[in-house]
Design goal:
- By secondary structure, this protein is of the alpha/beta class.
- Helices cover about 35% and strands about 15% of the residues.
- It has 11 helices and 12 strands.
- The strands form 3 sheets. Strands 3-4-5-8-9-10-11-12 form an 8-stranded parallel β-sheet. A two-stranded antiparallel sheet has the order 1-2.
- A hairpin with a 5-residue loop joins strand 6 and strand 7.
- Helix 1 packs across helix 2 and helix 7 crosses helix 8.
- The chain is globular and about 50 Å long.
- It starts with a strand and ends in a 5-residue tail after the last helix.
- Its EC number is 1.1.1.-.
- This is Aldo/keto reductase.
- InterPro entries: Aldo-Keto_reductase (IPR050791), NAD(P)_OxRdtase_dom_sf (IPR036812), NADP_OxRdtase_dom (IPR023210).
- It holds the Pfam family Aldo_ket_red.
- It comes from Streptacidiphilus cavernicola.
């Protein structure tokens, strides 16, 4: 796999990364053996950016990654996140960007990961109670101490990104970006990242699986799959979004690729590093193959015709979660 610069601060990653969240939580049944084998296969294929967070579990996803990388820590670019306060016994509280919590959380993550440093440390969500300058100032101290290689933000506004970057260079911003979620093209975030030389990491690049073409009914989800509460998978929203997926599938078929590969190739074409989440080797291999897909100007025009900005129907999170996305 091609290795490329993520941002302008010296971090190099594979052209596609891997999101590990679903290996532990939120997307139905998990299988540690298959998850570990999936990480193994990812590294074999040149995937280096492995993405986790202390809130995934909590803690268990970081512990899984630590187990997967035992004895070969340097084979991966490890990215994890803080900013959602979690007690040491695993109770999830509120957003917390206070310097003392960030430092405590990092030390705990390092123990769970079995390492002495994190390559990329994100502020998972922006705490409105704490000036971003204070939080990033604490992260900068941890960079100076060698515990963090690079600083990242997640779901941050253009203004917040600028304020953070003025304190210490931000290497990457992670946000939802896909054919179904193109808000950063309109709210100034994408332009700000390009101006400041900050890398874009796209999570949910397959619209939480919708753009894979494999989901045909809300009943496809396990009882404990959180997508059962996602507005885009409900009622008329589901039916309208499925119509878009059918058009994406048609374009993919004409190009002799899968819908997932077409959707991922589009994200890559926009200059982002996608981190599709999967917990199975067969889907990983399908996703990685997208790095070899080239989109022509005609392909981009055809995709734009069926999936322009705003085509998706329904909010991307249920109302109780939307408040965490306004930083």
């Amino acid at each position: 796999m091609e290795q490329l610069a993520l941002g302008s601060q010296g971090l190099t990653v594979g052209a596609q990364g891997l999101g590990l969240m679903g290996m532990s939580v939120f997307y139905g049944a998990t299988d540690e053996t298959e998850s570990l084998a999936t990480v193994d296969r990812a590294l074999e294929l040149g995937v280096t950016l492995l993405d986790t967070a202390e809130s995934y579990g909590p803690f268990v996803n970081e512990q899984l990654l630590g187990k997967a990388l035992a004895g070969r820590r340097d084979a991966a670019v490890v990215a994890t996140k803080t900013g959602v306060e979690i007690t040491d016994d695993g109770r999830v509280l509120d957003l917390n960007g206070r310097p003392e919590y960030v430092r405590h959380a990092l030390d705990r993550s390092l123990r769970h990961l079995g390492t002495d440093h994190v390559d990329l440390y994100y502020l998972h969500r922006i705490d409105p109670k704490v000036p971003i300058e204070e939080t990033v100032g604490a992260l900068a101290e941890l960079v100076a101490e060698g515990k963090i290689g690079h600083i990242g933000l997640s779901e941050a506004s253009a203004q917040t990104i600028r304020r953070a970057h003025a304190v210490h260079p931000v290497t990457a911003v992670q946000t939802e970006y896909s054919l179904f979620e193109r808000g950063i093209e309109q709210d100034g975030v994408r332009d700000t990242l390009r101006e400041l030389g900050i890398g874009l990491v796209a999570y949910s690049p397959l619209g939480r699986g919708f753009l894979s073409g494999a989901i045909t009914s809300p009943d496809d989800f396990a009882a404990d799959d959180w997508r059962r509460t996602d507005p885009r998978f409900q009622g008329e929203n589901f039916d309208r979004n499925l119509d878009v997926v059918r058009e994406v599938r048609r374009i993919a078929s004409d190009k002799d690729v899968t819908p997932s590969q077409l959707a991922l190739a589009w994200v890559q074409h926009q200059g982002a590093v996608a981190i599709p989440g999967t917990k199975r080797r067969r889907y990983l291999e399908e996703n990685v193959a997208a790095t070899g897909v080239t989109l022509t100007a005609d392909d981009i025009a055809a995709i734009e015709a069926v999936a322009p900005h705003g085509v998706v129907t329904g909010d991307r999170y249920a109302p109780e979660f939307m408040g965490t996305l306004n930083g």
